[in-house]
Every structure is written in C-alpha cells, then in structure tokens.
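Thread: quick sanity check before group meeting

JM: Hey all, I'm pulling together slides for Thursday and realized we never actually wrote out the predicted structure for the chain we discussed last week. Dropping the sequence here so it's in one place. If anyone has concerns about the input, flag it before I start.
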Amino acid sequence: MSSEADRKSAASDWLMVLLALLLVIATAAAVYFALKSPGKQYAHEPGARPRPIITNQVVVVNVQEVAPSGKPGAHGAPAATPAPAPEAKPVEETKPAEKPAAPAAVVVNPPQVTATTDGKIRGKVILKGTPPPESVIGAVKADANCGKVAVGTARTRAYVVGADGGLRYALVRIVKSPAGAGKMPDPILIDQLGCMYEPYVSAVVVGETFKVKNSDPFMHNVNATPKINKGFNFAQAAKDQINEKTFDKPELAVKFACNVHPWMVAYLHVLENPFFAVTDDKGSFELPDGLPPGKYDLEVNHLKAGVVKQEIEIAAGKGAEVVVEMAPAAK
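JM (edit): ok, ran it. Output follows.
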C-alpha cells in the first residue's frame, strides 16, 4: 500500500512540473512576439471619452484632439486655429425717418357772381384738388343677368369730374323763394338701366309725381329709405314696367337701392320750390325762370364735397352767373 501511494505522489509532482514548464514557455513566447512586432492602435470616435487600448498586455491611452469650435479636426491632424475676430466698426448714429410732407392744402376761392342781362341764373360748379379714384363695380359684369346688359364699365360715382374740373351731380337751388313763384317742373324719370340707377342724383318738388322704370329684362326692386317721408319697397319684375310715386315733405338725399343688386343706389332731393338744377357732366347748371327780383341764398349741395352758400341779388331783367369752387372732403 505504501509503495502504491508513493508512486501516485511522484506522478503528480511530475505533472505539476510539466505544467509550470509549459507556462514559462508560453510567457517567454508572448514576450518575444511583443518585442518583435508593435501593437495595433485604434482611434476613438470624435468627441468620445478616451478609452484604454490593450495591446499585448501593454495598456495605452489614446487621446484625440478636438477643435475648439466643437467640430472635430481631421483624423490624426491638429484642429484648425480659429481666425481672429474682425475688428468691430463704430456704430453709426441712425437718424429718425423723416415724416412725409403733408399734401398741400387745396385753395378754394369764394363764389364769383357776375350779373347777366338776360335774367338767367346759371353757372358752374368746379372741384379743386384731386378726388380719390372711383372703384370699378366688378359685380355688374360678374352677375349672370347684369353682365348681359351692362353699359361700359360700371364705377362708383362719389366724384364725377368732367373737363376743367366740372363737378357733376351737385344740387344747386334757391333755399327759399316767394310762395307760388315759378311753375312745377316736368316729371322726372329714375331708370334702372344696365343694373345701374340713372340718374345717380335727381330732384323733385314736394308733392310732384315722379316715375321709376325698369329698363332691364329681369327683376329689380325699388327700396326708398327716407328719414322724414314715408318709404316704399316694391318689385319691378317686367321690362319697361313704370311706377309713379310722390313725397309730401322736403328732404335731401333720399336713398334708393335695389336689394337684388346691392350696388345699385341713387339719391333724390325733395325740395320746397322749383328753382333748382342738378349739374351736368360739365359741372354746368341753369335754374328755371320766374324768380322775382330780390336777394336770395343760393346753395350748392354735393353728397361728398359738402355745402356752399352764396347770396345773390336779382333785379328786373337781370340775372346772375355764379362760379362755385368745392374741394374733396377730408378722409
């Protein structure tokens, strides 16, 4: 028994010696190859923290330089040196923007009155300055019915100015005349033609019958909205239909409108006496005959430009020629 145990112990000792010898040989081989060939290096990703690189049991720390701008430089190359900042220029003092010059005021002369030898009261209304441009009413031609009967290009009619500044659609009247003077004027006609009211401005005497006509081959309605007189609203469905109406109280600028075509508007002045006229496309006017001699207030009334009054004197067989200047209303 004792000799068997001794043989096993001796075999174990030889095995340990053999393993130790093999470990020494492996270590020597590793050292040899480490000295024979350099270890491999591995670059880090730009911006990554440096990590240890193990090469043949030798620990190396590889650090890559990063450009100061935050952008990585070329692989293995130093980052570019930032260019020096440009020298700051002195800030020039800025002047406040100048306000545009105000448009020159329109000079309007007082009315000029010249005696005539034919007993007529006539004259002209002139618009001084430049009025705002009129707008094209595109809805007229865009409408299926109105587009077929439209006459020319429809526009608004706030300021209709002719040659030499002649202002159309201004009412010229004697404010107050002797009772019974003059005669009733001929009946007027307010027409609906080409989806526009014609005329745009007209005048009648209190109690005078006037006519409203539809010259278009489709329906309009006539909606009069006075503030003093009694209004009315009726349809005119047939072409050439005519309705007669009156107003029994004086009132300026009674508005007429068509609710079917809302751009259609017109104005009617209702006056106490027949001594009036509405200026034509040249701005001209002439009042009816029959005003007795005396002093009177002549008034010019325009829907936008306002009102101008001038006293005139009429003698037997003498009249007056009046030139009145007006200006566009301030915006």
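AS: nice. Helices lie at 2-36, 139-142, 146-149. Confidence is low (pLDDT under 50) at residues 37-82, 90-94.
JM: adding both to the slides.
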